[in-house]
Hints:
Blueprint: H1 2-13, H2 18-21, H3 28-45, H4 54-69, H5 75-89, H6 97-119
Amino acid sequence: MKYVFILSLLLFTGCSSLKYVFVAPFDNNEYLIVTQIRTETQLQLKKCNDTVDVKKIQDLSLLLLNYEESLPYNDDNIILSKLNYKIVSSIPPKPSAYYCKEKLTEIDKELQKIQTIIGANR
Length: 122
């Protein structure tokens, strides 16, 4: 009976509905990596007037991207991770204090959105 229901659902709604049937479940590791990046971003934000180490944020963002790409049914999060990595990678090694504050604040807001999206799968 279950198979008849799924088959009829596919026939009437089309294969595009499969995207909503197969959603990546909540992943503790994924959420942890995003939290680590966000925490490091906030710590570096406090150092914008001194010496900022954006390398660690960039490395963690690459870790997230590589991890996301290995998860099935995770297309939306992969897009967000690629966007995050692109923004983080654009920061020069020694940014000005103003640029540092603006970029890291933007990154922090984006990571907060990603955390919310991943956490919604719980």
